[in-house]
């Protein structure tokens, strides 16, 4: 009837209005949380930034029905799943940047800021690639093909930087590229997607920005991920078969791929040469050390040999220490002459050779007197032997000495001899003086 409104229509309008207000309020809360988390991140208050951003990217607790009854084990999706495309990209890009900063803190600073358990959990999800599964599950209703391309680029870059194995990164990118290879522009499919996610999601190349994003994904996949997995030939084939790349871009991608491969080969060659040089230097140092060690051993052997030669040399006897120029030593070394009536004659009996004495130091005044006394003693002994062996020669010697003493006992004879000696000395002195004057002239 006219004037009455349909109750069902009014209910739908009211529900739509409430839903619109709720969505608007939720979007406002997400934007506010994002701004606060970004501000905390810029001031390096990372734990506070994490606690601010987590409520909008984590699933909610089990929801209650309008009559207050729990809906079993059903878990509401994260608030970010129902946000607009721009908001989703901002929030997830911020979260990926935040995880990169957490990993770069290092173990000591990271554990101090978040605690050991929390920091290890954040680092592990970055290195093992589980962050990709978390983003797909909580932010895109577990539909990997619906993930925004900018978020995929962030995920691939994060894994490329911190993951030791790029197999998972390659698998995820291949799944995403396969799901978005033939984008659909059917309005019905977009309306159907809007019933589940309340937003339209276009990952194709319908706009220049979408094309640039798609090219960035291809660059990451073909020029970074596949080369890390040594998939050089597959990367080349993928570039050649790509429908997005034109001939000019294909040539540019192939040149970049060849450049990367050549650079890697050159790096491997340089590394091998560096290792070879290090090995040669190590061997050279070892040879030098060995040569120095042998030289030290040889020098030590020579020193010991010289010491042994010095110890083995015979010690010099007393005769070698005796000065041969000493008249006393000459007299001791030569046998005494025997005199006959007509003159000195050689004794028929050989003189005794003195026994060897131990090595003695060079003679001093005391030793000289000792040698003189021994000489007199030896002379007296020889005279005794001469008297016993040749009495006539001894008698003639005694008579000669007696005549010499009697002659010098006369005073006039002594004075005459002294005068003759003085005259001779005076002549010698004058002759020497004339020689000195002539040398001066």
TrEMBL record:
Region described as Disordered: spans on this chain: 57-78, 280-364
Ranges of Basic and acidic residues composition bias in the record: 282-312
TM annotation in the entry: 392-409
Composition bias type Polar residues, residue spans: 62-73
Entry superkingdom: Eukaryota
This protein's record includes keyword Lipoprotein: no
Biased composition (Low complexity): 316-325, 338-353
UniProt keywords, alphabetically: Membrane, Transmembrane, Transmembrane helix
Keyword check for Transmembrane: yes
Name assigned to this protein: Peroxin 26
Species, as recorded: Aulographum hederae CBS 113979
């Amino acid at each position: 009837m006219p004037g009455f409104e349909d109750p069902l229509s009014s209910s739908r309008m009211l529900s739509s209005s409430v839903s619109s207000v709720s969505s608007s309020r939720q979007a406002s809360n997400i934007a506010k949380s994002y701004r606060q988390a970004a501000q905390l991140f810029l001031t390096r208050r990372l734990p506070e930034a994490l606690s601010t951003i987590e409520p909008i990217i984590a699933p909610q607790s089990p929801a209650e029905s309008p009559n207050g009854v729990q809906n079993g084990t059903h878990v509401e999706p994260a608030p970010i799943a129902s946000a607009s495309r721009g908001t989703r990209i901002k929030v997830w890009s911020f979260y990926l940047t935040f995880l990169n900063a957490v990993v770069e803190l290092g173990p000591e600073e990271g554990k101090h800021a978040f605690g050991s358990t929390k920091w290890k959990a954040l680092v592990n999800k970055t290195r093992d690639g589980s962050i990709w599964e978390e983003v797909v599950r909580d932010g895109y209703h577990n539909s990997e093909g619906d993930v925004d391309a900018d978020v995929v680029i962030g995920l691939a870059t994060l894994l490329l930087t911190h993951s030791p194995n790029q197999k998972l990164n390659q698998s995820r990118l291949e799944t995403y590229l396969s799901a978005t290879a033939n984008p659909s522009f059917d309005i019905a499919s977009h309306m159907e997607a809007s019933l589940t996610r309340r937003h339209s999601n276009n990952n194709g190349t319908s706009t220049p920005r979408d094309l640039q994003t798609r090219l960035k994904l291809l660059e990451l996949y073909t020029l970074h991920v596949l080369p890390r997995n040594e998939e050089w030939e597959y990367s080349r084939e993928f570039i050649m078969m790509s429908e997005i790349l034109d001939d000019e871009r294909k040539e540019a991608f192939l040149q970049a791929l060849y450049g990367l491969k050549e650079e890697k080969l050159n790096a491997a060659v340089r590394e091998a040469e560096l290792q070879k040089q290090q090995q040669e230097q190590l061997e050279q140092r070892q040879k030098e050390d060995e040569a120095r060690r042998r030289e030290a051993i040889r020098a030590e052997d020579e020193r010991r040999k010289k010491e042994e030669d010095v110890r083995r040399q015979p010690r010099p006897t007393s005769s070698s220490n005796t000065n041969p120029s000493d008249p006393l030593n000459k007299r001791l070394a030569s046998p005494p002459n025997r005199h006959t009536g007509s003159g000195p004659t050689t004794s028929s009996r050989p003189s005794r050779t003195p026994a060897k004495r131990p090595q003695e130091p060079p003679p001093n005044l005391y030793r000289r007197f000792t040698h003189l006394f021994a000489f007199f003693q030896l002379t007296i002994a020889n005279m005794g032997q001469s008297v016993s062996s040749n009495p006539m020669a001894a008698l003639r010697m005694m008579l000669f000495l007696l005549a010499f003493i009697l002659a010098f006992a006369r005073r006039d004879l002594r004075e005459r001899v002294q005068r003759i000696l003085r005259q001779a000395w005076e002549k010698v002195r004058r002759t020497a003086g004339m020689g000195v004057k002539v040398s001066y002239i």
